[in-house]
Specification:
The chain has 575 residues and is mainly alpha-helical. It contains nine helices and six strands; from the N terminus they run ααααααααβββαβββ.
Length: 575
């Protein structure tokens, strides 16, 4: 170890000697480095100005490019806007005609609305006039019926009175035979018929005078409306012809708005172009100034770069200068250490000789220790076996503990799953309850079943009024299948006087539409009654002139107590 240390110290001496031998060159390079640092300080200011002006010139050049690109983009956008504006102007050649047509449509639409209001008033007056005429005709028929009844009674009485002239009885006034008494009574009744005829004529004249006055008043009201169906039709046709010009006028307004926006955009873009051109001119002027100043400091910058490169090249010599004192100290220290290690080697050789003599004596004493060493080795082997067995048992205990933990965790999961199962069972029961409630035998069916009697009664009342009591409607909620089981359904059957009850689909078109209309009106009546709506009058428009191909399509209230039911020629509804 001491020999190795002495060799190490000798290597240190040799290395430090190499550094110390180059002292003159190191000092020369360090002096040159100091001179260059001084010159670099002199050039640093002008070099910094060069870098600053170069960066400024580059930034201004990029700004010039950016402004030129902005101007080009803005000019392209202006051209695009001009093209769009010119295209819109070309499309506005017929705007004058469109405006005239749209204005004409507005006037005609106002006239049409007024005429339609007159049509409603006229229809109401017409209906009232028809009702007055109907009442007048009813009264006429009533008195005609009374007169016919009196005429029939008169003929019967005249026949009875003829018996008196044909009987040949001498004292007819005091006759006691039964048939002559009857004839005598008939003679008296025949004499009283003149008064009945006079009463009928008097009442007929009075009541017909009232109804005629009412008919004339209703006719006068109807004529005062000054409704012209042909004018209404012509206005509708004109409005239908002029209606497209309204949308075209809207397009014109939108186009004019777009043109105004385009003009505003063009002005804004032109303003932006002017601002960009000003910024471009300023950037170019500033760029030229920055380039001139940059070129003025370019030579100083190049010289500064060379000086910095030389300084970088000489920096290792500064480290070598710092190593000179260290090398001197290490050289001196290493030489002193070599002398010390030489003395230590001599002392070590003496100690080795003494230790060798002692070692020879110890060898003799160690020969009896080999047997004890074998016993200790055997005991160590047994201890290792026991340690291995303990580790094995500890591993088994750990595995069992892990299984116990896993079993506890599984029990918790089973409990959680059972709770979830109970929750799902309750939810499934709720769904089954809802399923049963909304099935064919559930709440909807019960609602339908509860309203069927009222619907049947109302429908039959309406249908009876429409057909003079000859037709009726029956709703059946169960259908007997071929297997003999009853199935929940909703079938409609039509009853007709003198005929068997037949399904709805087997009846003719006219019978279907009457029954369908009665059911629809019944539903409307039930719904309005349940909602608290009271309708005072119902008008049915376009009923018998449409070949029975009708369905209800529109309810429109004309007044608070009147509803107008419009029927259009559409496919027959099916239940």
């Amino acid at each position: 170890m001491t020999e190795q240390s002495r060799a190490t110290q000798q290597a240190i001496i040799d290395n430090s000697a190499v550094i110390l031998d180059g002292r003159a060159e190191i000092e020369e390079k360090v002096a040159e480095h100091k001179s260059l640092l001084k010159h670099e300080l002199e050039l640093a200011g002008e070099s910094a100005l060069y870098s600053s002006k170069k960066q400024e010139a580059e930034n201004l050049a990029r700004q010039v490019d950016a402004e030129q690109k902005v101007i080009a983009d803005l000019q392209g956008a202006v051209q695009t806007k001009w093209d769009e504006k010119n295209a819109m102007i070309l499309n506005s050649a017929n705007d004058g005609e469109v405006r005239q047509k749209a204005e004409l449509y507005t006037r005609k639409k106002t006239e049409l609305d007024e005429m339609q209001e007159k049509a409603v008033v006229y229809q109401k007056a017409k209906t009232e006039h028809a009702a007055a005429v109907f009442r007048h005709d009813e009264i006429t028929r009533k008195f005609d019926t009374e007169k016919q009844s009196a005429d029939e009674q008169k003929r019967v009485l005249e026949k009875k009175v003829e018996i008196l002239s044909e009987s040949g009885c001498v004292d007819i006034d005091h006759a006691h035979c039964k048939f002559l008494q009857d004839a005598t009574s008939a003679k008296e009744e025949l004499a009283a018929l003149d008064g009945i005829y006079a009463d009928i004529a008097s009442r007929r004249e009075t009541e017909l005078a009232k109804t005629s006055l009412e008919v004339d008043e209703k006719l006068s009201v109807m004529n005062e409306v000054e409704f012209d169906a042909e004018a209404l039709s012509n206005l509708q046709k004109e409005c239908a012809t002029l209606l497209p010009y309204v949308s075209q006028l809207e397009d014109i307004k939108q186009r004019e708005g777009k043109i105004a926006l385009l003009e505003a955009d063009i002005k804004h873009l032109q303003s932006n172009i002017l601002e960009a051109e000003i910024r471009l001119a300023e950037a170019k002027a500033e760029g030229m100034t920055a380039e001139k100043e940059r070129d003025r400091y370019a030579k100083a910058f190049e010289e500064h770069v060379k000086v910095l490169s030389s300084i970088t090249t000489l920096e290792p010599w500064l480290e070598k200068e710092k190593q000179l004192p260290v090398a001197e100290e290490r050289n001196l220290t290493a030489k002193n250490r070599v002398l010390e290690l030489t003395e230590e080697l001599k002392d070590i050789d003496t100690d080795i000789a003494e230790k060798q003599a002692e070692a020879d004596k110890e060898l003799l004493a160690m020969s009896g220790m080999e047997e004890l060493t074998g016993i200790v080795a055997k005991m160590n082997a047994e201890v290792e076996d026991l340690n291995a067995l303990v580790k094995e048992k500890q591993m088994e205990i750990g595995a069992l503990q892990q299984k116990a933990d896993q079993s506890a965790r599984l029990k918790k999961e089973i409990t959680s799953l059972q709770e979830r199962q109970l929750g799902y069972s309750d939810e499934a029961f709720d769904y089954e309850t809802l399923k049963a409630a909304f099935s064919q035998s559930g709440v909807p069916h019960q609602i339908i079943r509860s309203i069927i009697p009222q619907l049947t009664a109302t429908s039959n009342t309406i249908l009876g009024q429409m057909t003079g009591g000859k037709m009726g409607v029956e709703f059946r909620l169960e259908r007997l299948q071929k297997s003999g089981k009853e199935k929940v359904s909703l079938d409609i059957f039509i009853e007709e006087y003198g005929k068997s009850v037949l399904p709805y689909l087997s009846k003719s078109g006219g019978e279907k539409v009457k029954s369908s209309l009665s059911v629809i009106l019944a539903l409307a009546e039930i719904k309005s009654s349940s909602a608290g709506i009271q309708l005072g009058m119902l008008f049915i428009d376009s009923w018998m002139g449409m070949e029975y191909r009708h369905t209800v399509t529109h309810w429109r209230p004309s007044r608070a107590d009147i509803a107008i039911l419009r029927l259009w020629q559409l496919p027959m509804i099916r239940p």
